[in-house]
């Protein structure tokens, strides 16, 4: 597919975003990768460029600073690059009681998970309309469907992503823009999460996937214009069970399970017992 069109991926230096970048590169898609400064993004971009003979631009910006979303768009615009695929992947997670978090963390979580997706979609909309057929992939979570203790803010941000994507899809289909939302369950994206996942019970462990398994499912589903992608048989099963069992039983099982998790969040909270990365 190597041409003058680009796929922009946020949070592309690690985890699921990195796996998505590799999958897109293997399909000869030119890339614009965004991640935090000092995230080894440049060397990753260079390796993709060499290996897959594609164009790759790395933009190192902290997206939790709203102005940086505008600067990303400005840079792409000034370089006259044409984006026909926007992958809103960046997001941070937490598993902790609401009282264990602080305002700074929740603000950052809402900014990265909700505002950045909304803002970038708005900024790139005209470009996507010009370069149709075009695609938007929003990364939600299985947490969008369950109202779990210790996942209150994270789950709500992912419910926003789910609802936003479904509404936008209806609106943009006549403009030739496809909108897909992927809702993965647990993925082994980084050391902290891998460690947490290992401590899960047997049933929950069966649903954990590697980002390298999920990324091809995501891109295939996106190109096939699927509305919602739930990767993995176990995750699909969880959703079916959720519909079949009475809600009080679901709540009991889910909350019993989630309460066994150690609390964690990303960032610099000093009142959180266990600090780690996303899911
Ligand atoms: N892992 C799971 O189990 C799971 C399950 C369902 C959904 N998801 C969703 O999948 C997405 C990716 O999660 P992940 O587990 O792959 O996360 P991750 O391993 O923590 O990677 C996050 C990526 O985002 C970048 N990033 C973090 N903060 C940023 C900021 N302020 N500005 C710009 N880039 C930033 C990171 O860059 P650095 O390398 O520089 O930190 C990294 O590239 C999230 O939306 C998450 O909610 C994850």
TrEMBL record:
InterPro entries, A to Z: NAD(P)-bd_dom_sf (IPR036291), Sc_DH/Rdtase_CS (IPR020904), SDR_fam (IPR002347)
Residues in the signal sequence: none
Pfam family, one: adh_short
The keyword NADP is annotated on this UniProt entry: no
GO molecular function term, any single one: oxidoreductase activity
Keywords: Oxidoreductase
GO cellular component: membrane
Family, per entry: Belongs to the short-chain dehydrogenases/reductases (SDR) family.
Name of protein: Short-chain dehydrogenase
